[in-house]
Amino acid sequence: MIALVKGFIFEQRDDMVVVDVNGVGYEIIMCPRAAAKLPGRGKSILLYTHLQVLENEFKLYGFLEKEELHLFKRLLGVSGMGAKGALNILDFIDPRGFYQAIVSQDEKLLVKIPGIGKKSAGRLIFELKDKIGQEQLAVLPDRDDNSINDVLEALEALGYGRSEIFPLVMEMQSRGELGAHVEENLKKVLKARALQMKG
Asked: Whole-prediction pTM value?
């Protein structure tokens, strides 16, 4: 089992990276969102990995964060979910946002993920909602993340229900669209909500 790979980036594409480890090149499959964060050719990198042994080939999948690797493995345990589908989920949303969607049974958010239809979303919720355990603690905004809490409180003051707006805020946060300034975040969320209503 290859638990991690540490070396230098030899080659990089949208969904793959070759890491040179003491003269041996490891071809590692990644989701585009993670691959875009790589530092570039010749730079040092450490990836947490999962080796998939198939009938006639080996595939090595890489992740920048341990949490992403853990979610990837957990998704592989869902019936009908393969490595490609699991990578699609990680490419669309980070683990924290995904766990929030499962806990809140937010099917609308899950079906936005490429390759996930209504039936697949229902299966993910059904099979994972009772298994995520301590991850439930990670889906809520951090205690120190006052800006997100302030945005939610401001939206509630404007008449939005928390269950109505919370999934959108979490999705935007997981995509890195929200910053530290409450007023700017509020404008962004209201704009996104307006577009959501039009759609």
From this structure: 0.69
